[in-house]
Every structure is written in structure tokens, then in C-alpha cells.
Design brief:
By secondary structure, the chain is mainly β. The protein is about 5% helix and about 45% strand.
């Protein structure tokens, strides 16, 4: 169960956006690199319950960012997720989703239960060009059972065996502050 929970909460995992890549550009590094950013997240709200899915009030991670015409690429080390940069060239939105079978691994047998997690990061870069030193964003996670799932035993209550959530569906939001910690690679 621990591996399932880690997969469900990892920062924007699993779903790579399909980007139209041209020429001999590296598929794992699309766009013009902006650098590596050290990100500090502080939890604002959480309806899933304190410590649900191993979530903490604050956490830190690194992400590499790149931009292209109308796109911002968020490389978390496991996948590259394509987001949208608005016409102002600083506002961005990145969305992804992942579905996890909550009965996988060491979970006890029970009825089918899959949870879909939808992620959305919405924020602003501190510059419109290639010299971006920082960004601020809000990252929200929304969790909901998929159609036909029976996840009652994972929610605190009379039926819970090993509760993971206080409620389901639920959500949690983080305020993110990213500061460039590594320059873009030399061209």
C-alpha cells in the first residue's frame, strides 16, 4: 500500500504530455531551458485529512523548466509535462492526471478501488524571457474514486480497515515558491 500512496502523491507524476517535437531536439528536454528550480511548497488547505497519503504541511523538490511558443515544460525528473503560457508570457497553467489502483501491492483484498488524481499548477514566472530567476504558483491535487470503484474502507468511518482519507473525494492545495538553483545548460 505504501508504494501506491507514494505513486499517488508524487509531484505531478506519470502522465507525460504529447508534445509536437521537431528536428533532432531531445524528446526529454523540449523547448528552451530556463534552468533547474528548487521549489518549496506550503500546504494551504487539505480536505483529505492531516497526513493523508503521507502529505506534509511543507515539502521541497527540484524541477527543470523550459519554454517554447505558448508552452511551459515542467520536468520533474520522471516525466515532462507540457503546460500553457498565456499571452502575457509569464502566467502559466500545467495540468495532469493519474489513476492509481488502490488495491495493488501489499493491500488487503477487497472490492475494486481506483482513485484518480487531477493536478493543476497555476502561477507566474518572474520574467517573460529566458532569464527567469523565480516563479510562484498554487498546486492543487483533487482525489476522487473512479466510476465503479468501492473505496469506502479507505475512508475514516465504520467500514474502514486501513483508512487513508478523512473524506473522498477530497483535495489539497499548496503555495509554491521556486527559485532557480541551476542555470540552463549551455547551448
Amino acid at each position: 500500500m505504501r508504494m501506491v500512496l507514494l505513486a499517488l502523491l508524487s509531484a505531478l507524476p506519470g502522465v507525460s504530455a504529447c508534445a509536437e517535437l521537431v528536428g533532432d531536439q531531445d524528446a526529454h528536454a523540449p523547448g528552451t531551458a530556463l534552468g533547474t528550480f528548487h521549489v518549496v511548497g506550503e500546504q494551504r488547505r487539505n480536505s483529505c485529512g492531516a497526513g493523508a497519503l503521507g502529505a506534509t504541511r511543507s515539502w521541497e523538490f527540484d524541477v527543470a523548466l523550459a519554454r517554447d511558443e505558448g508552452a511551459l515544460f515542467w520536468n520533474n525528473g520522471g516525466s515532462v509535462i507540457e503546460g500553457v503560457i498565456e499571452d502575457d508570457q509569464v502566467s502559466f497553467v500545467i495540468e495532469s492526471r493519474v489513476v492509481v489502483d488502490m488495491r495493488a501491492g501489499d493491500a488487503p483484498p477487497g472490492p475494486p478501488c481506483s482513485v484518480e488524481r487531477r493536478d493543476q499548477a497555476r502561477g507566474e514566472l518572474d520574467g517573460a524571457g529566458e532569464d527567469v530567476a523565480a516563479f510562484e504558483a498554487t498546486l492543487s491535487y483533487d482525489f476522487a474514486p473512479t466510476a465503479g470503484s468501492h473505496c469506502e474502507d479507505l475512508v475514516v468511518g465504520d467500514l474502514s480497515v486501513a483508512p487513508v482519507f478523512d473524506a473522498l473525494p477530497c483535495w489539497m492545495d499548496y503555495d509554491l515558491t521556486g527559485t532557480r538553483s541551476g542555470p540552463p545548460p549551455p547551448e
